[in-house]
Amino acid sequence: MPDPLLIVGASILAGVVAAFTVLAFGRTLRTPRTGLATAGSALGAGAGILAGAWMLGLAPQFPPIEDRDRFLLIVIPAAVLVEAISAVSGRGRWLLRFVVAVAVVPVLLHGSSYMTDLSGPNSREWSPTQALAIAFGLGTACLIVLAGVSRAADRAGVASLGLAGAVAAVAVMLSGYATGGQLGFALAGALAGVVTASLIVSGPILGGAAGVGVVGLFSLLVIGRFFGNLSTTNAALLFAAPLVGSLMGRARGGRPSPWLWNAGRLSLTLVPAAMALALAVQQFSTNSTRPAADGTGPSASDYLNFGK
Amino acid sequence: MRKCLVVLTAVLVAMVTQTRVHADDYGLDPTHTAVTFKVSHLGLSWTYGRFKDVTGGFSVNAANPAVTAFSLTIKTESIDSDNAQRDQHLKSPDFFNAKQFPTIAFKSTAVKPIKDGYQVTGDFTMHGVTKPITFALVGGKTIEFPKGVSRTGFSTELTLKRTDFGVGKPMDAIGDEVTVAISFEGVKK
């Protein structure tokens, strides 16, 4: 059973590593350049996720046989690299992002029964054509969300991503994939660290972190859906949450105040996220153990504290 | 004459060799095959479960056990512990990762006759990890049921450490040692 204290600690570590990375890129330069600082935000997000995963005991194995390993060793570094290149050179940005978005599903599901004949000839669940269609379809959805979030990639936008990541973490854990879900907390912590550091480093630097955040959230939902038991509805609601929040766009000067405007954006993000969480809790309760005759039963914290 | 003797000798040797390597092949009868397991819960009781989709076969030669062989394939997704939530969790990457490792397999590499059965050594593959295991297989009585159908059966019980195969992490609430009971019948082909 997951340890809440360890999860909090990992989230904090993810945030600290992310923040220091952003500050290192943004403050050590005599005249900070936005491109480099934006690349720094991407790197900070990625480093934070990896640090959080390490503290959770989820450091990747090599070769990356399982989905978590491929997420940490391939998907996140690829997303960081693409965002860093895009931030510095700006050329081919959307093509590179499209390649990463489309590659997420085949990479995470590589060697699984969805795409490989693991139980004999023709035992794979998806034909090659189906696999290609699913990769392109989901990749396109990822790109749409990325485009929407990038439009409003300020503190509220990245915070929305972190919020969605934290809720997705709980939903994936409730779907029966506890260790995979915890990666969402590392994601949320890393994005929170980047947002915090952006209070010190001036300029529009959060685009890099937003790109890594969208790919990270997308990947978390893919592994929850296809390796856990996260429903398609919940996955869609959680992935749409930051996009819904970005519909309001960035705050403008004047009325309403930027604080109120951004609070509204975060609230909008919470609506689909909360719906997904409610559905996940309901599903978990339905599938849980039969209640004891007197209606009581062990709680999660009872299991956590067992043996201590 | 000499040529005839040589040919006759060769034919006799071939016949004897054929008899020595010939084994009776059996296909597993899924209706009368069971793979069940139990694992400690909190050190207080056992949680039981089974795998419902088991296939395989075996070859038995009582005169020459060296050619006797057993193989078994279990579909990981068929796990059933009588609790939907627990089964989902067991199938997830937290334990068996059924989508990445959809089968559990055993293939014998050496068979030795012992009292009441065989000592079987073979490669056991679970969660992508292959390790040699040895266990005593009891049984081998052959009967005709229904008429015209020859069948035999074996059973065994063995203990494995799930963490040796990367199935879940060490934790106090769920025992590391899992006792597996396998009982199967085969119908002669």
Q: What would your notes on this structure say?
A:
The complex is a heterodimer of chains A (308) and B (189). Chain A has eleven helices and no strands. Chain A is mostly helical and 308 residues long. Chain B has helices at 2-21, 84-91; strands at residues 24-28, 34-41, 45-51, 54-60, 69-75, 79-80, 103-114, 117-126, 129-144, 150-161, 174-188.
Q: Care to give the gist of this entry?
A:
The complex is a heterodimer of chains A (308) and B (189). Chain A has 308 residues and is an all-alpha fold.
Would you tell me the structural class of the helices and strands of chain B?
mainly beta
Question: Which overall shape of chain A is indicated by the principal axes computed on the Cα atoms?
Answer: globular
Number of alpha- plus pi-helical segments of chain A: 11
Low-confidence stretches of chain B are: none
Q: Alpha-carbon distance between the termini of chain B?
A: 42 Å
Give the quaternary arrangement of the chains.
Answer: heterodimer
Strand content of chain B: over 45%
Give the arrangement of secondary structure elements.
The complex is a heterodimer of chains A (308) and B (189).
Chain A: H1 4-27, H2 34-55, H3 67-89, H4 93-108, H5 128-151, H6 155-174, H7 178-197, H8 207-226, H9 232-246, H10 258-287, H11 300-305
Chain B: H1 2-21, E1 24-28, E2 34-41, E3 45-51, E4 54-60, E5 69-75, E6 79-80, H2 84-91, E7 103-114, E8 117-126, E9 129-144, E10 150-161, E11 174-188
Antiparallel strand pairs in B: 1-4, 1-11, 2-3, 2-11, 3-6, 4-5, 5-7, 7-8, 8-9, 9-10, 10-11
Properties at a glance:
heterodimer; A: mainly alpha; globular; B: 189 residues; mainly beta; 2 helices; 11 strands; 15% helix
